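ok so i was messing around last nite and threw this chain in just to see what happens. nothing serious, just curious
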Amino acid sequence: MRFLFTILLVSCPLMNTFSSTVGSGEVELGIGRNNEQVNAGIGMRYNMKRLASNHQTYLTTRAQLGGDQGRALIATAAHEFQYQASFIENDLNHVMTFYSPRLSWLSGLSHRLNFNDGLDDEEADNEIISTDYSNTNESWSITTGPEFQYGLGAWFNSLMAAKISRAYAQEYFTDESLLSLDITKSVGHITQLSLSIRNICSTNENPLVDDFCRDELSLGFETGKKDFGYAFDYGYSKDNDVLTDIYSASSYFNLNSTSIMTFSAYRLVDRIGIKDDLENNNYSSVKLGRIANFLYERGRTRIEINGRRVNSDNRINKEIKEDASIFYDFRLSSWACTACRLALSHEYSRFNLALEQNISSVGFNKRNNKNITSEISFRKTERTDQDTLWSINYLISYSGSATVLSDR
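result:
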């Protein structure tokens, strides 16, 4: 463990005479009123990157604090699950290149702190749910190791990597090692073939989770044009003579100049470092995902439709999470508010087999200036663990532009 932190801390401070740091972020404050209860929530995103000739550092911070009804929409918009609990999450990644540009050292650190929901002591009779900041769950992971890349022009490329990782979740530690080889070869101008080989070994302190070493092999095919493209790879994961099929597929279609559709699907065996919406508590889980998106933009109208389903089976229990959403946005032409928009949305989430949520909303959005946007909305929230709630919400959003923090 000390070796992992040493590598990460020693590599990050390495600076270069020619380097710059750029940061950008968003902050949202949401205030809602339902009957006699006023709820408030705040959401934040911040991205920072430091670029130099021999190293790059990337930091992403996300936070959401507040009650279920007052929580800012920053974590419930499209492409994000509608989280039930407040959280603070940080991801730090660093890439250091040696004298040879083919050899580099990669390090990554992820940390997440969840604040669980609980009954408000003063409103226990009314079963008012609020965030309990004294009841937390912490999880983190750290990964480090070298990569070596060798290529012959655009038609052939190979990448070899060796990484060691440690993760902590639900009071247990997991140690993992990864050896990988990836080869890609171009066939023509728009098509590529790929070969991927991996060896993964893991030890877990959880007595319910077995230690393992498994081998993975997959072959891939990718092609793309201006209006459409798709990629597919298929292989297997072998653990103690047990074979598990693994695959991934993705495609995009530009239907016309105003519409695009994307689809993706995957089946994989989990490991440290894979980011998705199911917590990585068991690093031998088989995960199955399906994602579909549609976007239409023309003139003053914008329509977005999203759907996703993620399943996880770790031989102890099964998890299912789903979400679907539709967003309609129309820019008004009223002389009284030329910067106003009408926003309609419906969002569905299934957190587990027993808990579902539906949110319907209609609102008016105004861009006050290039950084600040305000919105008032009327929302209906339905959840299986509570009564139907009607609320009025006022949202203030601040989107910071990219700013050079330092230049050396």
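not much to say yet. The two ends are 33 Å apart (CA to CA).
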